[in-house]
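TA notes. Do not distribute before section.
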Amino acid sequence: MRVVRRLAALAGAAALLVAIPANARAASPKLSETTAIGTHNAYDKAKYTYFAQALDSGASLLELDVYVDSLSHRWRVSHSNPLGNDNNCEAAKTPSELYSKSRNQDLGSCLDNIAAWNQLHPDHPPIVFKVEMKVGFNNNAGLGPDEFDTLVSQKLGNSVYKPADLLGGTYSSLDAAARANAWPSRDSLKGKFLFELIPGTVEKSNPFDHYWTDQEYGDHLRDLYAAGKTAEAQAFPAVLGAENGDPRTSRYDASIRPWFVFFDGDAATYVNNGYDTSFYSANHYILITTGADGVSPAISSTNPTDAEVAARLALLAKDHASIITSDWSAKPASVLGSVTARG
């Protein structure tokens, strides 16, 4: 009977789905008021031949896995090779070079590709780059939050929507700004990128590492604000892992809790366990729900039907997600670019 009810809910959700085209002229909702679709591990050559094609996909979130290579002082992009690059980012710095150069480049080149693509598509909808720091930062080797900020800033300049933009010179923390729904409209974010940072799988399994990416960047944001230098920060740290209630309370000390307004967890854990996700939309936090295909009843993780994607988007929008993700790179931009009202 539960499955029947869930199927009925899916059908109803699909019927309620209202996509918001990227070029809509109606009043634009705020970023915090919509739900969109993202692609897991978009740097994978099996998903897209070139990273520029991932940008072309229409997806509102693209994931990059980054290793700090302390030996060569490089930011590697790879799923499992910490000392090399294995990805679809190419040695292309200009629009004319995209879709043609050698791949397997470092994070700097991925950012070059993004900058070049941005010149071709200056009015694109906002795109979130979810950066998993596989082994965390290594500040002692000069590969810490400061250096990450510098690299992103040098490559992308004012095309990044930053924590300081959300603060707007008005609020004393990101939490205060989010609760006031100070997020901009989607229209005003055309041509903009946002960076979300999460701790990595290797980092979390390292018994000698108890200072993960989320805490380190949270400390970084707090300290920059205290020094009057918040504008230097290029990313939003995310609370990783689905929990019921506010997960910041048990994970971070009071000094950095207000610097987390991005949350990232497994969609099925949130939904199938009946967690109260209204907490996120009530406070206008950005909630990224991964593995959207795994919510009961499960659908294909690679190539579901368009109707199944639409129904899943509508269902998770009602469950207060901001972005849902899966390995749906095979779907066209007309599907991956779908945006609907949240909650």
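Switch to the second chain here.
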Amino acid sequence: MKKINIAILSIIAASIVQAKEINIGVVLPLTGATAAYGQSALDGIKIANSMKNTLSNGDKINLVVVDTKGDKIESANASTRLVSQNKVQALIGEMITANTLQVIRIGEEKKIPVVAPAATADKILNKKLYASRVCFMDSFQGSSLANYIKNKLQYNKAVIVTDQTTDYSLGLTRAFEKEFNKQGGKILDKFRITAGDKDFKAIISQIKNLNPDFIYLPVYYTEASLFARQAKAMGVNIPMGSADGVADETFINLAQDAAEGYIFTDSFDYNNPPTDLSKEFIQAYEKEKKNKEVPNFSAMGADAYFVIYEAMQKCVNNLNTECINDNIHSTLNFQGVSGVISIDKSGNATRSIVIKSIENQKQVYKDSILP
């Protein structure tokens, strides 16, 4: 009996000695204008890591987190440091398109796989070998809402307010306009704003005179909340909506009662967990956050981590960045937190989209649209 015990202990000791520490770099805006997105995604990534952090061979996965401050240069510098100093095997980040492009650029140069939780611009992965995402593309997001408001809500006339400084807004505008026209709707006019603008009263006045059925605002939560509040103050009660740039609860906090009835596209609904992993994650999140509802970007951050984890699990016998990258790009019907995700060779994800509205300061599920 003693000999058997000694043999077992020897095997355990050997496996402990052989186990390695593996780093995943997390590149997110934790301060700055888009900090709400980054903080939410980081919550999800950390909880996902707490749920699954050891590979089948005993290797331990650690997170190395860097704040980009929402800046393009910081995004590139942070990614470079994580690769050169921390020897990360994969990168998660960033949250907005312009900054994600910088993370991807470093990933391509260093041949390190990058998984973006929320960068939705259509062309961001074009001709990239080491980049992928777990979110849908803007063409699907913009066209889905256009189809929904035209055919489900019977809105026939719309105006679009576009942030001319972001690829995110411009891409959503093109997709929404194309699909709305295709479905027989009419775009009465398009208005351009710039990120950081604070006074939208002149535009709102023009829109009031046009009297559309719907106002599409493919912008981030700061500008969207200001626009909604100013419209309400001016007595303009035209239905309006956005994309996932307002999915974070920060939009509701900023817009307050002006958010009532606001429609938007999203990738996850806390009250409709689509998979077993989703249910497990929600339980872990509630325990960690004391019953706080799970935001969209926390689910997306978690899925970015879990996709990398599953790829690493398939590479335990020969863990290297090429193997990890190949397996990320071979993801098929992964039962993720936010839904079922497949990732093709180009790195793009095939997945469903959720339509929500804001009612009584809460996000309320309305519909799901399959690709």
